[in-house]
Write a structure and sequence with these properties.
This is DUF6817 domain-containing protein. By secondary structure, this protein is mainly alpha-helical. The chain contains 18 helices and 4 strands. The strands form 2 sheets. It has a two-stranded antiparallel ribbon. It starts with 12 loop residues before the first helix and ends in a 16-residue tail after the last helix.
Length: 369
């Protein structure tokens, strides 16, 4: 059996410093590339629109934040901030009319960035994911994909750069928005089951549902990353995201689902907590199956602290921080990304100082020093 020493990645200090710069809400106003665009987008009401686990503003900014953390170039980060503003097959949120406002957006962000945004909005994104994961990218990295609309649909040939940009943006888009409600209503994405009627399956449609993390989409994100990493003409187009060991490690769908179930069983107090061994073992197994998200490691760090296992707690907290800083968004969306990092840093500080509170009320007094 794996010893706790072997479960957790060491803390990536350069990645932590990049993440810390993005923690407060003002980071976007300091970004020379994105800041001039934000007021124009906000003027279109994105802060008032519902979108998945938050507002449309939360979503657009969250995707741009991951892409910024991943060191993507200006055009790709702008794609993240604007990736659905023309609407698309999934989201009926048209903030700019493609028929009349493309020139306005081109003047704002430049033609290369606007071209990416328009193409990302108008192509069949489900088919893009399916074809890329099926290995249909050509030897030079290009990929044919249909545009949205009624049949017969026109195909376009995406360049290797466009394929890489859309794959990386799709990875960021998925981690920002996907949780169990999406698993239910977008069953089997990208081959979504469209036969289920809301009147019959109303319980699945009840937003936001139990707010479990996704049990199926991280493995797809891992596969998208590997599709880039293993195709030489695609791998050299853009910086590879630091998730899944630089997009080199796979995640089996069965392991993802099992790890999520184990994590949720502890979070929902389905494991006996009079003695911590059961909950600790469940979380350790969750980390073995899916070491690529921070939340199970963070909860495990707190259990270790409660059991007086300070060294193990410090290792778990460092591993959790590394994963949080690799994503730029939370997997467990009950709490925002910056709050997960804030609590994990408290856990790490407490483990290093051997100072975990003995009284329950003192948990409310913890502060980072």
């Amino acid at each position: 059996m794996t010893h706790p020493d072997d479960l957790f990645s060491p803390l990536d200090e350069p990645l932590l410093q990049r993440a810390l710069a993005l923690l407060d809400d003002e980071w976007l106003s300091r970004d020379a590339d994105l800041a001039p665009v934000l007021p124009v987008v906000l003027a279109r009401g994105v802060g008032q629109d519902w979108h998945k686990a938050g507002t449309f503003r939360h979503h657009l900014v969250g995707v741009a934040r991951s892409l910024t953390l991943w060191g993507q170039p200006r055009e790709v980060r702008l794609l993240g901030l604007l990736h659905s503003v023309y609407g698309n097959a999934f989201v009926d949120l048209v903030k700019f009319e493609a028929a009349s406002e493309r020139q306005r957006l081109q003047q704002l962000v430049g033609e290369p960035a606007e071209h990416l945004v328009h193409l990302f909005c108008t192509m069949n994104r489900g088919q893009f994911v399916q074809r890329l994961l099926a290995g249909q990218a050509q030897g030079d990295g290009s990929l044919r994909v249909e545009l949205n609309g009624p049949a017969p649909r026109r195909e376009v040939l995406l360049s290797a750069y466009e394929v890489a940009a859309f794959a990386v943006a799709s990875m960021a888009d998925t981690i920002e928005q996907w949780f169990s409600w999406q698993d239910e209503v977008f069953s089997r994405f990208p081959a979504t089951d469209t036969t289920r009627r809301q009147t019959v399956h109303w319980a699945a449609s009840l937003w936001p549902g139990p707010m479990r993390p996704t049990a199926r989409m991280l493995s797809q994100v891992a596969a998208l990353g590997r599709a880039l990493q293993q195709h030489p003409p695609l791998a050299g187009q853009l910086p590879l995201p630091p998730v899944f060991a630089g997009c080199s490690a796979p995640l089996a769908p069965a392991d993802e689902a099992a790890a999520c179930a184990l994590y949720w069983s502890v979070v929902q107090l389905d494991q006996p907590l009079v003695d911590l061994d059961g909950a600790t073992s469940a979380l350790e197994q969750a980390v073995r199956l899916n070491p690529w998200v921070g939340e199970p490691q963070m909860v495990l760090a707190q259990l270790y602290l409660s059991a007086g296992r300070d060294e193990d707690a410090a290792r778990a907290a460092r591993g959790a921080l590394s994963q949080f800083c690799a994503w730029g968004n939370a997997w467990d969306k009950r709490v925002q990304w910056d709050a997960w990092i804030a609590w994990t840093r408290i856990l790490l500080q407490s483990a290093e100082q051997g100072s975990w509170p003995e009284r329950l009320d003192k948990l409310n007094n913890l502060a980072l020093r």
